[in-house]
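W.,

You were right to be curious about this one. When I first looked at the sequence I had no strong expectations either way, so I just let the prediction run and decided to look at it fresh. Below is the sequence, 274 residues in total, followed by the output.
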Amino acid sequence: MNYRHSFHAGNFADLVKHALVLWLLKERQESGAAVTVIDTHAGAGLYDLSGDGARSREAEAGVARLMTAADRPPLIEALAVEVAALNPDGGARFYPGSPLLVARALRPGDRYLGFEFHPPVQAMLVEALAAWPAAGGLEGDGYVEALKAARTIKGPLVLIDPPFERPDDYVRSAETTAAILRHDRAATVAIWTPLKDMETFDGFIRRLEEAQVGRVLVAEARLRSLNNPMKMNGCAMTVVNPPSGAEAAAAEICGWVAANLGEAGARAEVWRAG
């Protein structure tokens, strides 16, 4: 599975991921202490949905419906506000990735470190973050660089969101998470994964459980029954060492996405592993 950010930008999975990222960042900021966000697979930071997104048409069933929905719950509304800020004339042509969402929310003292492996995409990331000096878009292997960065920062919020174009992305995601938490139990790590092959996903969760590095919260948004492994039937955000209130926040986000964007058999599940 090749989950290229630009091709899938603004789809239902982005809504789950980005609404929860915004909440996690806000919760970290509530303590008053400076927050550093480390992003292993940052992507371009900002997406023009008239490009790759128009070809995939996934944004039509995601952010486009988000922006026309009524009675959005607070955590979904928070993401809609960010999208609206980039589209002052209405609509949803431009969509923010996690780098831009985080950069716009940084307070004095906060930092964002986003890593991107592909040089052309990293150049776009730097351009997208140019207005925020505390947000850096760096080239490199996100798994390796995130672990290096986490060893120099107390209690970071780490986002792991690989494109799943490599067969070892699940393993490296779990191993990087375990290594970060073994070094610093105050860190929080949020990992996005597709829901296609449940055997692979279950193996990923087992790796986290066996590492015994902290509490594991799994938030799933299933858009359809998991009976076709060739489709991305849903997505999950797995949060290790989640803050208080994460279960309710994830239920609000995943519940809205499943109920408003799903097909027959759609549902949300939020559960603790282990």
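Here's what jumped out at me. The two ends are 28 Å apart (CA to CA). And, maybe more interesting for your project: The first helix runs from residue 5 to 8.

Coffee later to discuss?

I.
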